């Protein structure tokens, strides 16, 4: 089982070391602190209001790597990025996993999200998934280029499908990568 290789040490582009590992029960406080450091517009791509301590408490309480695998990057003792692989073992999307990723603004453009997504892709392949998806708003240029660099392709745009912080309708961009052998 691939999860046994964690925690894992990786180096960012500036050679600074970080640790990658699945989220643990004891991470509740540092995960909440991490989300509070994210700009509100960056939290919009997440499904829950992660500034609410009860939401994090619930995530941690219901931690189940067979449904959502949250991978965190740590600089010593604080979380600096969070990536999740979400999947559904039954139903017609059971071959798919959805990736969501956020990174601490202080740690961006150092290859951190690339490292986390590459780890999530290896885990997804090990879990037997065949396709990965990412859902983006058009304003998230950096995320678009990042997923494109990693082999994801834009397959659909859902017009006026989501609402931004100012309650304006925006398109939702769906990106997909096939990972079946
Ligand atoms: C998107 C996000 C996770 C990127 O994190 P990061 O750690 O800075 O990303 P990395 O340093 O690994 O990679 C950035 C890549 O984006 C691409 N990129 C970024 N800006 C780009 C631009 N203007 N033109 C072309 N490529 C660009 C590059 O490919 C770059 O990789 P490279 O430097 O190796 O060429 C981060 O900006 C973030 O948290 N944004 C807010 C949340 C979000 O948009 N999440 C995605 C929705 S699921």
Short description:
Helices cover 26% and strands 35% of the residues. With 181 residues, it is of the alpha+beta class. The chain starts with 7 loop residues before the first strand and ends with a strand.
Provide a descriptive summary of the structure in words.
The chain has 181 residues and is of the alpha+beta class. It has a single domain (2-133), classed as Gcn5-related N-acetyltransferase (GNAT) (Aminopeptidase), CATH 3.40.630. The chain has helices at residues 28-37, 40-43, 53-61, 112-126, 141-149; strands at residues 8-11, 17-22, 68-75, 78-87, 96-103, 131-136, 153-163, 169-178. The chain is globular. The model has no long low-confidence stretch (mean pLDDT 95). Coenzyme A (COA) binds at residues 42, 45, 100-103, 108-114, 134, 136, 140-143, 145-146, 149.
């Amino acid at each position: 089982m691939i999860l046994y290789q964690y925690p894992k040490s990786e180096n960012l582009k500036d050679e600074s070391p970080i640790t990658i590992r699945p989220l643990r029960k004891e991470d509740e406080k540092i995960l909440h602190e991490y989300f509070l450091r994210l700009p509100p517009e960056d939290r919009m791509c997440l499904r829950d209001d992660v500034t609410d301590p009860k939401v994090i408490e619930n995530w941690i309480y219901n931690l189940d790597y067979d449904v959502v695998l949250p991978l965190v990057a740590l600089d010593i003792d604080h979380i600096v990025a969070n990536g999740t692989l979400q999947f559904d073992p039954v139903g017609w999307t059971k071959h798919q996993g959805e990736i969501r990723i956020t990174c601490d603004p202080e740690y961006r453009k150092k290859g951190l999200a690339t490292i986390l997504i590459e780890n999530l892709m290896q885990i997804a392949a090990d879990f037997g998934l065949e396709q990965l998806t990412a859902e983006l708003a058009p304003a998230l240029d950096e995320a678009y280029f990042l997923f494109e660099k990693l082999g994801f392709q834009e397959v659909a745009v859902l017009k006026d499908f989501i609402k931004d912080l100012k309650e304006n309708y925006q398109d939702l961009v769906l990106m997909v990568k096939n990972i079946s052998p």
